[in-house]
Amino acid sequence: MSLFGKEISNNFTKRLGFESSLVDNFLSRCKNMFTSYIFFFQASHFFWGLWALIQAKYSTIDFDFLGYAIVRFNQYFKMKLEVMTLTLPE
């Protein structure tokens, strides 16, 4: 959090009667939750890409499953490097 954001946060919590440590704890938990979410979000791209490949082979529905698979796998590989550098929260 930037210094300016920290100052606003501290001022806001003082006016409401909260301790600053509670806000810091909340923000830390939000970061951890977001990091965990990103890992599952990445897995979703891979799963739906794989599902679309299977559908492209076996489905009788008139839909561009192969095109959909390409979009999902492109997104997976686009984000892969970024996601691999994140660390899971403890």
Automatic annotation (TrEMBL):
The keyword Ion transport does not apply. The chain crosses the membrane at residues 34-54. Pathway: Phospholipid metabolism; phosphatidylethanolamine biosynthesis; phosphatidylethanolamine from ethanolamine: step 1/3. One of its GO terms (biological process) is phosphatidylethanolamine biosynthetic process. It is an enzyme of class 2 (transferase). GO terms for molecular function: ethanolamine kinase activity. Keywords: Lipid biosynthesis, Lipid metabolism, Membrane, Phospholipid biosynthesis, Phospholipid metabolism, Transmembrane, Transmembrane helix. Pfam families: Choline_kinase. InterPro entries: Kinase-like_dom_sf (IPR011009). The keyword Lipid biosynthesis applies. Its EC number is 2.7.1.82. One of its GO terms (cellular component) is cytoplasm. PANTHER family: CHOLINE/ETHANOALAMINE KINASE, ETHANOLAMINE KINASE 1. Belongs to the choline/ethanolamine kinase family. This is ethanolamine kinase.
